[in-house]
Amino acid sequence: MTNTRASHTASVLSNGKVLVTGGIGNASFFLNSAELYDPSTSTWTTTSSMTNGRYFHTASVLSNGKLLVTGGFNSNSGALNGAELYDSSTSTWTTTGNMANGRYIHTASVLLNGKVNPLI
């Protein structure tokens, strides 16, 4: 990986690559960066960054192949209620609707109807 990080997420995308998002970097900086690991070539590449740096967040792969990142924490804002979508076909992030409450160290489950249920 390009960045040392802890308290990040790692998710297997529909294309078989692993997307690592956010976390805490060196000197306790929260990261908005994301990196892709390709297991077929054993290589890491940097992809576009999230709008907000975050750690202790969740990342859920949706049925449409996009990745939904919810909540997390950063020392500027505290518990985050924001969510962002990653589209692996365009390597871009889009901010999406906010949760009613900020959450971190939570879980998020993709339900059979395609909705995501974040729980503390």
Automatic annotation (TrEMBL):
Source superkingdom: Eukaryota
Coiled-coil blocks: none
Stored Pfam families: Kelch_1
SUPFAM superfamilies assigned: Kelch motif
Keyword flag Repeat: yes
Keyword Repeat carried by entry: yes
Entry keyword set: Kelch repeat, Repeat
Entries under Gene3D superfamilies matching the protein: Galactose oxidase/kelch, beta-propeller, Kelch-type beta propeller
Name used for this protein in its record: Uncharacterized protein
